[in-house]
Amino acid sequence: MGCVDSKHKLHSDNLKGLEASFSRKPWRGTGGLESLVQLVRDLQEVDDYFRFHSSDAAAQARVGSLGNEIARELVGLINIDLIRGRDTVTIPRLKSIAKNLDIVTRDVASSQVEARLKELHRQVAQERLNYVGTALARASDPSMMTTAATQVLSSLLDAQPHVREVPELVTVMLHHCTNFSEKVIECLLVMAESDTSLFRPFGDIAAKLDAMAQVLARQVSTSWPPLAARVEEIRLQKAMLLVPTTLDSFELEIERAEQIEPRKLLKILDTLLPLWTDQPQELTSRLTAALQKLEISVTTAFDRALAAGEGSRLDMLVGFAKDLDQRRAQLAAEVAGVAAAEPFSRGLETRKAGVTLRTLFENAEGNVAARSRELHEAFREAESRVKATQPRERLKERAEEYRWKFRLGNGSFKDYSAARSAEVEALYQDWLDKGKPSDVESRRYEIKIQVASAPSRVESREPSIISSTSTSLPPETDTVKSSEPVGRPRCKYGEKCFRKNAQHRKDFSHPGDDDWPTNNAGDAVREEDSLLHMPMSNPGLGVGVAEETFSLDFLLMTQVNLSRRGRGMRRISRVEGMTFAQQHTHEYFVQVVQFVKEAEDMLAKAEVELRLLGDSERERMQAQVDQLLPAMRPALSEFLGLAVFIEDMKVIDDVVAMLGVHAEGLGIKSVLKQLRMRDVLDELKLAYKEKDVLGSSQPQKWDLLRLMWKHQAVVGPLYYNRCGIVKTKQEIQTLTRRHVQIRCQALLSEYADDAEFGAEFRFSAVEVLAGAARLAAARGSPETLRGILQTAASWQCDVAPLCKSAETFMRKSLGDAAGSRLQPLGRVIEVLDLGQEIAKAAHKQLAEVCNLTPFTGQIAEKAFGEVNDLLDKAHDPLKMPASVNQLVELRTKLRSNDAATQFDAEFWALFKVRYEEGFTSSTETQTRAIEWSMAFCEQLKQPLPPWMMNKDQVEALRKLESAMTSGEEGRLREAVVFAKQTDYKSDSQLSSMYEKSVEQLRKLKRLPSGWEMDGLVGDDAKAKMFKKVDLAGDTLISLFQQIFDKTNAGIVTRDRKEAMPRGYRVQKVESVWNVDSWSSYVKRLDGITDQCSRFPGSAPVEDWSGWSGNVATDELGKAILTEARLPSLENSANEFLMFHGTNPDAANLIAQNHFDMAFACKTGLFGAGLYFAESSSKSDEYVKPDARNHFPVIMCRVTLGRVNYVPNPDPTTDPGRDKLESSCLRGDYHSVLGDRKKARGTYREFIVYDHYQVYPHFIVWYTRLSG
Average pLDDT, stretch 438-453? Predict the structure, then answer.
């Protein structure tokens, strides 16, 4: 029954959890439908239980209600977006959930979901069909159908899957298909004569419509007249009418045309091609002949244009030839009998390419030379400005704080003029000072800009690589580009142009192109804007200047041209100003970039033309191209050298990127590598270049410093100022070296794959650093030396040459520190530390840099000297740890070297001599020596010398002395345990102290002399002092056998469950050594003895005859204790040895943890006490055997004290259990003697109610003798 209730509760709780989970609706979040799937599964399990295994109608109703709510939730999750998007994952998932839910809702969920899906399919299908109907109704003019047909077909195809779910809409959709088919036929009949290209797209539409409509027609058992056949029929009809006349027009146009009109001819061809399928061979031959004649005419026109040098005419004819090739290929692919011909446009392109390349080279050779001369002059001017800026680090400082830029229409940013940028910055700072207000009035500022528009062009002659002319505005004017296009005509559609044709993009300029006019605000200038704002032109300048107002919004960082009705919003940007290096080289670098851009444009154009030439002609022209590259190399080498010097890698990357593949031909990368390496090495030499302070002037400088220090009262300020200057110079030098190290590392990382370059750089760098290392070693500058080695190692250089300088420094420094009496031991440690740091910087061990073995003797002698001085002086507790730590630190420095072993041997040899000669004469000095040695060896984790007392022995001796002095039991035991764990026997003093401590502990605990303390103390001072010892000796075992035999009364009571044995045989006796129990027992024994003394005659009991005789165990119990060397029984407290029968587990627990009154039998005849017997046969009634069939009985020392004698037959009522207990616990008695021998003729029982009146002395294991 309980199992059923627990299941019911479990499923009820699950139902509550499902209801709570449903109320949270986690599937509406980002978790997906997994939680809803799991909810339905769990609900199925709950429904199964309440339906088939429970009669809880209310729970069944709740399950059904929850299932219906989930079904409604599923319906709500199905929205029209899922249907429109044709979600092939979510919809099937929802259907599956509904199907699983049908078990709970009795098939309601699936029907609701299907109904919802059908409703939404109907809605979407109706939307698509309504659109089709509207589009067909609007296409009243057949010309409108040409654009609407594709959209109508797309809508019908979209509606088809939805109509499939709603069969009643099939007829409606077929009706729309029929209307669409009629519209297509009507359009073709009207428009085909003027536009035959409609047949191809309409044929595709007809094929798709037929495939879809035939499926729909089969659904309603009707037929569908194929539209594709009707379209083909109309095409053939139109072809019979139009092909002959159109072909005549094409031939006539070719014959009479003095100038070829490509558009007209291509239009005629585009009319013929869609109709040409299945035309007679005669007409096909005529068309082929006409095309051949047209090619001849185009070739003739190309020759004339080539002779006249009409470049635009040549481009037009080549383009027309490509269009003809395209139509010819289309005709060959679709019409049988028309062979594919080689494209004749390729020959025209080849001839045109040769002319173009010759013209290109004629202009480029002179222009490259002219521009190179100009760039050389600009380079010299920029270089002089850069070299004049000292120190070199100043080149990286900012020459101006901030610059302002505005965004152009092509997405790039352009700088304001310097004056205008300063004006904008002042306005921006004003906005910041106001606290960056966000309201419109406070965050916007207006500026005036001079805007130029040019009704007439002013051309300035300026050398260029590609062309010899270029248009520019007057310098230093805050103007915009001319609104009149220079070069290509502007596209009339501007930003709205959608044409992707490459030829159109080539012929017309568009927003974002270089020749599309823009103003300083980045706005594309429209023609009407130019005319509207065009002022009177300045005849001298050729441009008109008008002032326009711009609004700057610093919160949004935008600008708007207010003079043009607020149009042309552009982003503005505030960037950091130029450095001095950028300022000095900006104009020169701009010229270089323009030079490279023009050269790359020319080379790119040449590459395009070269591809069109034949092999021999291409090789000849390629040689001319290759001759141009060396002419550019001097100008580029100068540029690279200056850019490398100022560390402007961005402009180098820009130029290299523009050159592209030609950078290899120019050798830019190899030149750049060498330039950068040379520049970095020059800076490295400069950073480590120091004046040799070892020259002849050094003594004079030291004399001057001594003189200044002697007279510091006069020249003190000068001295300290000089020190400050030196410190500042050192800091500057450190920063300079760090900077060049970073540059070197960056260069190596950049060319990490170039092994040859890396090896060359590292070799040169080591030469520079080796000289600096020698100087640093001679000057005794370890920090500089360490920095040099660390730098070389980080660059993966060969540090062997540098390590020689490090070895020189170490030998000199270590020899001075160890050999000088004036230098303390700490100086030796400092030198070793410096050496370790230097070696670590080189990724080596100190032993690899310098051999320390020759110095170990001096170091050991200096170390022992300091230790000896410390031990001979008066004891200072603060100096000894410092001395130990110092020597440990020294020894640690030598650990990684062979010198450590040699140092240990020499140091301890000196120590032993002093220890044996002098330390032993003074106990205090010897103790300090041992303490020092122990501390030293402990930190090094080394053993003490064998001739010296070890740490544990000294500590044990101290603990024992201190514990004995204190007399505290706990401390004494801890000290004894600690001493026991040491080799105390090897030292006579320690051994004697140990024995004394053990005896003192025995006395404190009042332990029996028969207990061995060594085993009892144990190895853990916190552990309980307890032990069970097997008693040996025939005499002792014989006494236990006698006490069993003599006390065996053979009387059977109602407590015996088995037959009475013939006798007992003692097998084993365990003596219980429990220190805590014994101490408590002895303490209680003393108290009872004292109390009994106040009641004369109570202890000892003088006459037991009135109480059924003497205690049966009295004599043999005393004999056992005497033989076991245990304290004798105390007669003055009526102490006896008695039996207590129990089971094996209880016997062991009582021995270890003592008796527990909580387990006393509360229903015993004499109350809740501990019951003992004087007869072995009585205790035998309560024992249980172990696995060997041995029975345990505990022989206990029991202090009876003043005995309450009870001979009554029924003590439970006379006098009663409570009164008996109270007589001992709160009265003047200590125990109860229940004389059942007198009352019932069985056994006497001895009861105590305080467990401290009992000590479990022995556990006797015996066997029963049967029969």
Answer: 82
Q: How many CB atoms lie within 10 A of CB 409?
A: 21
Which residues in 236-255 are b (16+ Cβ under 10 Å) and which e? eebbeebbeebbeebbebbe
pLDDT reading at 1099 higher than 80: yes
d(CA 1215, CA 1219): 6
pLDDT of 470 strictly over 60: no
Q: Which of 76, 84, 87, 81 is nearest to 113 (CA)?
A: 76
Summarize pLDDT for 106-144 with one digit per residue, the tens.
Answer: 888 888 888 888 888 888 888 888 888 888 888 777 777
Give me the long-range contacts of 38-42 (CB less than 8 A, separation at least 24).
Answer: 39/70, 40/70, 40/97, 40/100, 40/101, 40/104, 41/100, 42/14, 42/18
| Interior/surface letters 535-569, b for 16+ CB within 10 angstroms, e for the rest | eebeeeebbbbbebebebbbeeebbbbebbeeebb
pLDDT tens digits, residue range 384-394? 888 888 777 77
Closest among 1136, 1097, 1092 to 1114, alpha carbons compared: 1136
Alpha carbon distance 306, 311 (integer Å): 8
Write down the number of H helices and E strands in the chain: 45, 17
Q: Are strands 1244-1248 and 1231-1235 parallel, antiparallel or unpaired?
A: antiparallel
Which has more pLDDT, 191 or 593?
Answer: 593
> If DSSP codes are grouped into helix, strand and coil, which group holds residue 568?
strand
Count CB-CB contacts under 10 A for residue 695.
10
Backbone angles phi, psi at 558, to 5 degrees: -135, 160
pLDDT of 1041? 94
Give CA–CA dist 793/797, Å, rounded: 6
599-616 mean pLDDT = 76
* The pairing of beta strand 402-407 with beta strand 413-415: antiparallel
For residue 1234, what is the DSSP state?
Answer: E
- The confidence band for 497, taking pLDDT boundaries of 50, 70 and 90, is low
Q: Residue 693 pLDDT more than 60?
A: no
Question: Residues 549-580: pLDDT tens digits?
Answer: 888 998 889 998 888 765 668 889 988 878 88
Residue count of the chain, please give it. 1267
- The H-assigned helical ranges of 688-711 are 698-710
Average pLDDT, the chain: 80
Looking at residue 518, the DSSP 8-state letter turns out to be B
Q: Is the pLDDT of residue 254 over 50?
A: yes
* 3 state DSSP class of 707: helix
CB of 648 within 8 A of CB of 578?
no
Q: Average pLDDT for residues 172-182, to the nearest whole number?
A: 86
Which DSSP helix (H) or strand (E) runs through 840? helix 825-841
End-to-end CA distance of the chain: 52
For residue 76, how many other CB atoms are within 10 A of its CB? Answer: 11
Give CA–CA dist 1267/906, Å, rounded.
85
- The kind and range of the H/E element at 845 are none
Give the gyration radius of the chain's Cα atoms: 58
- Give residue for tokens 């045109």: 352
Give the span between the Cα atoms of 1095 and 752, in whole angstroms.
Answer: 108
pLDDT recorded at residue 1037: 92
Distance (Å, whole) CA 612 – CA 610: 5
CA dihedral 86, 90, 92, 93 (to 10 degrees): 180
The pLDDT of residue 945 is above 50:
yes
Burial class of residue 753, CB neighbours in 10 A (0-12, 13-18, 19+): exposed
Residue with tokens 């248009």: 471
d(CA 900, CA 897): 6
Assign 941 a pLDDT band (cuts: 50, 70, 90).
Answer: confident
Q: Does residue 1232 carry a pLDDT above 70?
A: yes
Structure tokens at 265: 């001819």
